[in-house]
């Protein structure tokens, strides 16, 4: 009958036009003109539908009558449809349940009324449960969340229906079978509510709104969109925000600092091995003269020293020379000179060492290796 | 003092840290009473056995209270110990007040950083420590004192501290005289 919510608006405009026209009624053309906001074809089609449903009828029932009038009952139904579309029909259902209860409690009510009432309620709750269950199993979670508020969380509906059920069963025990059907449909509705709630909780649990709260809390928080929480946080004063944590007890900030940690921290702050300085660099600001870089030629000095040591002797023992020197500093210099002379390529002197050892603890030096300093034989010849 | 009151004091200490009471106030069981040197009040410090204190968490490798910048904070406390411990041969509490500049000088000598950076670290550390009562310091106050919590360190730990005290640079310059006030 009504395929689209917008069609309700068209119907309403048509009925409004009839209401304004008074008892003379309107022709089809007049209705279309009055409803010029909508497409003429749509209006005509709706007029046909309404005529099929007897919502509008000819003013006088004769073949060529052009004027139509509207009945009031369809408009009431339209109002109901409006409300149902807006609010899901929950309050209507509540009212219906209250009315059923009143009807069957009435002392004039007979067994037939009770049976009819119970079968109506059975149908209502079966349809509700079917819709909810199919949403749970096949619908997207978002669709479920949008529609679910209209369908579940209505424990009071079940309670009311159970009251009706109790009254019927009390007055007409013979209706036990129908009452059992009602009980089953109520249980199905209850199960569907549970399933829907479970699905929503599961879905909300996967999107953690706030990471630091326990899992149960996050699930509960997930029911509200994040924007709601943001605006709550922005608009609340300090008291309201603090009230959120009213039931929590926090430990005082009590970090433990051990002296060991203190000492380690102090130690680690110090640069290892004290402050390090850059080693001094050679002073290369002025270039050394090239001459200074040449190895010093001390051939002449060494030759003079060798001649002085040897005198007119061909060779002389190291022990003898050291005895002449008398003390160790001088002797040391002598040995150094002899070695330098020995190694000089241009000088024909040599220092030969033997296996002998002269030991005399009482004198200086207390021991001397058997060494001879002399001219090289072949060169000297 | 009955059991309920004792439990209440322990709960207060747990929720808000060491409690300051007026002189002549209660002395709940298991708590250390630390009188202020000027007699204006006393601190109640819960004394836990060694095998139940926060140090156990360290030993077990469990996460304890998370402290931001643990090293810098420890250095700040070390600087305060260096400045406020009147007599290293004796107990740490109550110690003496040390001027901010002196603590800053010691801290600066430890960390060896730029003055601005060092000041920021010091201020953050002092705030953090004052919040948990390791130090007594009011925001902006010129003097810093050691807080009641330091009295929880036992004798063995104090000897570690003494070692550290000796190894630390003394407060340099004009602060050095103030670091040795008569206790």
Give a verbal description of the structure.
The complex is a heterodimer of chains A (381) and B (183). With 381 residues, chain A is mainly alpha-helical. Helices cover 61% and strands 8% of the residues of chain A. Chain A contains 18 helices and five strands. In chain A, the strands form two sheets. Chain A has a three-stranded antiparallel beta sheet. In chain A, strands 1-2 form a two-stranded antiparallel ribbon. The longest helix of chain A has 31 residues. Chain A is rod-shaped and about 175 Å long. About 3% of the residues of chain A have low confidence. By secondary structure, chain B is an alpha+beta fold. Chain B folds into two domains: 45 residues, no CATH class; 109 residues, Arc Repressor Mutant, subunit A, CATH 1.10.10. Chain B has seven helices and six strands; from the N terminus they run αβββααβααββαα. In chain B, a hairpin with a 6-residue loop joins strand 2 and strand 3. Chain B starts with a helix and ends in a 5-residue tail after the last helix. The C terminus of chain B is likely disordered. Classes of the chains: A mainly alpha (381), B alpha+beta (183). At the A-B interface, helix 13 of A face helix 1, helix 2, helix 3 and helix 6 of B.
SSE layout:
The complex is a heterodimer of chains A (381) and B (183).
Chain A: H1 5-21, H2 28-34, H3 40-52, E1 56-58, E2 68-70, H4 72-87, H5 90-105, H6 111-138, H7 141-151, H8 155-171, H9 176-206, H10 215-221, H11 226-235, H12 238-243, H13 259-269, H14 290-293, H15 299-310, E3 315-317, H16 318-325, H17 328-343, E4 349-359, E5 367-375, H18 377-380
Antiparallel strand pairs in A: 1-2, 3-5, 4-5
Helix pairs in contact in A: 1-3, 1-4, 2-3, 5-6, 5-8, 6-7, 6-8, 6-9, 7-9, 8-9, 9-10, 15-17, 16-17
Chain B: H1 3-16, E1 19-21, E2 31-35, E3 42-46, H2 55-60, H3 70-84, E4 98-99, H4 100-111, H5 115-131, E5 135-136, E6 143-146, H6 155-167, H7 175-178
Antiparallel strand pairs in B: 1-3, 2-3, 4-6, 5-6
């Amino acid at each position: 009958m009504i395929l689209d919510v917008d069609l309700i608006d068209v119907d309403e405009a048509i009925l409004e036009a009839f209401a304004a026209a008074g008892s003379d009624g309107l022709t089809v053309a007049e209705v279309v003109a009055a409803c010029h906001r909508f497409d003429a074809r749509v209006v005509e089609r709706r007029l046909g539908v309404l005529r099929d449903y007897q919502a509008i009828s000819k003013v006088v029932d004769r073949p060529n009558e052009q004027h139509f009038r509207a009945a009031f009952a369809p408009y009431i139904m339209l109002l109901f449809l409006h409300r149902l579309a807006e609010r899901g029909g929950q309050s209507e259902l509540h009212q219906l349940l209250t009315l059923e209860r009143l009807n069957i409690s009435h002392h004039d009510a007979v067994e037939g009324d009770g049976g009819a009432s119970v079968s109506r309620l059975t149908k209502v709750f079966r349809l509700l449960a079917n819709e909810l269950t199919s949403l749970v199993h096949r619908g997207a979670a978002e669709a479920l969340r949008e529609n679910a508020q209209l369908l579940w969380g209505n424990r009071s509906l079940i309670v009311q229906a159970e009251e009706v059920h109790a009254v019927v069963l009390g007055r007409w025990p013979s209706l036990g079978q129908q009452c059992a059907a009602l009980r089953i449909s109520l249980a199905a509705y209850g199960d569907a509510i549970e399933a829907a709630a479970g699905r929503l909780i599961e879905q909300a649990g996967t999107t953690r709104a706030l990471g630091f709260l326990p899992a149960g809390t996050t699930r509960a928080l997930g029911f509200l969109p994040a924007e709601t929480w943001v605006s709550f946080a922005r608009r609340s004063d300090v008291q309201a925000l603090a009230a959120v944590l009213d039931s929590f007890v926090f430990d005082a900030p009590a970090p433990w600092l051990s002296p060991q940690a203190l000492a380690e921290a102090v130690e680690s702050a110090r640069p290892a091995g004290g402050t390090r300085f850059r080693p001094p660099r050679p002073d290369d600001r002025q270039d050394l003269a090239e001459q200074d870089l040449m190895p010093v030629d001390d051939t002449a000095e060494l030759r003079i020293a060798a001649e002085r040591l040897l005198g007119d002797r061909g060779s002389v023992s190291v022990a003898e020379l050291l005895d002449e020197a008398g003390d160790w500093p001088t002797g040391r210099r002598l040995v150094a000179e002899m070695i330098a002379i020995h190694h000089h390529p241009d000088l024909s002197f040599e220092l030969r060492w033997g296996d002998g050892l002269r030991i005399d603890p009482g004198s200086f030096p207390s021991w001397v290796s058997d060494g001879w300093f002399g001219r090289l034989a072949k060169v000297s010849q | 003092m009955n059991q309920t009151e004792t439990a209440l004091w322990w709960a207060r200490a747990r929720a808000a840290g060491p409690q300051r009471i007026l002189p002549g106030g209660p002395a709940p069981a298991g708590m250390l009473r630390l009188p202020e040197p000027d007699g204006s009040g006393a601190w109640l410090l819960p004394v836990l056995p060694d095998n139940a204190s926060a140090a156990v968490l360290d030993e077990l490798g469990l996460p304890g209270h998370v402290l931001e910048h643990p090293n810098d904070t420890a250095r700040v406390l070390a600087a305060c110990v260096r400045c406020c411990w009147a007599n290293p041969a004796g107990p740490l509490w109550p110690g003496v007040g040390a001027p901010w500049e002196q603590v800053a000088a010691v801290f600066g000598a430890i960390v060896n950083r730029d003055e601005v950076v060092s000041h920021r670290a010091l201020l953050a550390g002092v705030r953090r420590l004052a919040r948990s009562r390791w130090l007594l310091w009011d925001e902006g106050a010129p003097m810093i004192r050691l807080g009641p919590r330091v009295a929880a360190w036992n004798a063995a730990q104090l000897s570690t501290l003494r070692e550290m005290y000796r190894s630390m640079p003394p407060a340099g310059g004009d602060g050095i005289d103030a670091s040795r006030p008569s206790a």
